[in-house]
Amino acid sequence: MSVENEYLLRGEDVSALVFDIRSNALVGGYGGLYTAPQCSVAPYVGVRDEESGNSKKQRFIDDPDVYIPREGTQLKKYIEKSKIVDWDHFENVFEYLVTDKLRFDPSLSPMLFIEGNVYDRKHREKLAEILFEKFNSRALCVMPVAPLIIFRREPTYNGVVVDIGTDETTVSLVSDGFLLRKNVTSVDFGLDTVADLCGELLNNKKINFSTNLQNKYKFPVHSSYEEVAQRKLLSEFAQKVLYCQKKPFKDSLLPAPNVDFTFGSKKYSFNAEEQCKIMECLFDPTVTPSNIENFNGLYKLIEDTVDPFNVDSIANFYSHIYTNGEGTLFKGFADRLNHELTKTPPRLQARLNSNVKAYEKNSAWKQGGIIAGMGTTGQLWVSKMEYEDGSRKLHYL
User: What residue ranges do the domains of the chain occupy?
Assistant: First the structure.
């Protein structure tokens, strides 16, 4: 890094942009004093081929514009499992953020990107290539989400982060402030899985939950719009109706009042069993099978991730468990996870001294903003010159 760049990135006021690549959105904003990101963009892009054989495509970006059906248009996803899977669409979305939403010059402000906990070297290098070569970024730092979650909650540098997103669940270990990349366990379980189980419940009750988009428009609506609209409806149903029972469903069903939810113009009622049984897929898949390979419940996932360490480290990890992601917002989730942790061996039980720390919305982004604005973190940034020289700093965190 040049002396000038190093000086500018070590000052008391580093004006950095912070972006969080989530499984269900790309959020961004100015770090530092802001308590929430200034924009959030959907993980979908509406794509329509131009007429007259033109190779260029017309794209529709951002809520609610992207979800409005248009003739000859389909929805395509460019984010999966907190990673960019379509770089062409990402370039268009990021250009929209730069010019229309945040209105900043990438060549003047460093950018911090928060990514998922499953490390992918090629993904980081492609991200850096686009930001430096297409957008002429001044400096870049890429960090996994898990350490930021722990830094945000309390001044500790060790712990376990349970992250349940739209299409993936990860259990990650953080030691001395660094993510242990080889100790990240991932399964293809997420809110989409819960939504599918909700669809099965509604089908069994013969409840029509179709959004009927085709009947609302005079032109053929691509099936992708119906699929996304239906999944959004099922996710809303899950968040409003379902809850996690504190004790296992197999042991007993605790009484709970019925909950109503409206589909179309009809209101339907759901009893206690219907409200809590689906969520057992998180803790005991034998009660509610989710058909996800190698997933035997959250406790087993945590156990498989933590147990390879020595006893002293295990006790420390089990005492500092944090949650992250929209999938941990279900009512009763933290209490049930605390109950699951009573399965730990007696030799550990006496040494556990902490409860599960519940998810705080935008906590990773907020902490990223704090770190990006600190004048003492200049060594984290990779300048364009360092990138061109093949610096490995991009992969340090």
Answer: 44-77, 190-291
Task: Give pLDDT tens digits along the chain (397 positions).
Answer: 444 444 445 544 557 899 999 999 999 999 877 888 999 999 999 998 765 355 567 889 987 889 999 999 999 999 999 999 999 999 999 999 999 999 999 998 899 999 999 999 999 999 999 999 999 999 999 999 999 999 988 777 889 999 999 999 999 999 998 999 999 999 999 999 999 999 999 999 999 999 989 899 999 999 999 999 999 999 999 999 999 999 998 888 888 999 999 998 899 999 999 999 999 999 999 888 878 888 999 999 999 999 888 777 888 888 889 999 999 999 999 999 999 988 887 767 656 666 788 888 899 999 999 888 776 566 789 998 898 888 888 888 7
What is the layout of strands, in order, in the sheet containing 44-49? 57-60, 44-49, 73-77
Give φ, ψ of 29 to 5 degrees.
Answer: 170, -175
Residues forming a β-bridge with 99: none
CA distance 263 to 76: 26
Q: Is the CATH code 1.10.10.10 the one for domain 190-291?
A: no
- Sorted by sequence, the CB contacts under 8 Å of residue 58 that are 6+ apart come out as 47, 48, 49, 50, 73
Residue 186 near residue 202, CB atoms below 8 Å: no
How far apart are alpha carbons 357 and 328 in whole angstroms? 11
Rg (alpha carbons) of the chain, rounded to whole number: 23
3-state secondary structure 157-182: CCEEEEEECCCCEEEEEEECCEECHH
The answer to whether the CB of 249 falls within 8 A of the CB of 280 is yes
Cα-flanking dihedrals φ and ψ of residue 129, to 5°?
A: -60, -45
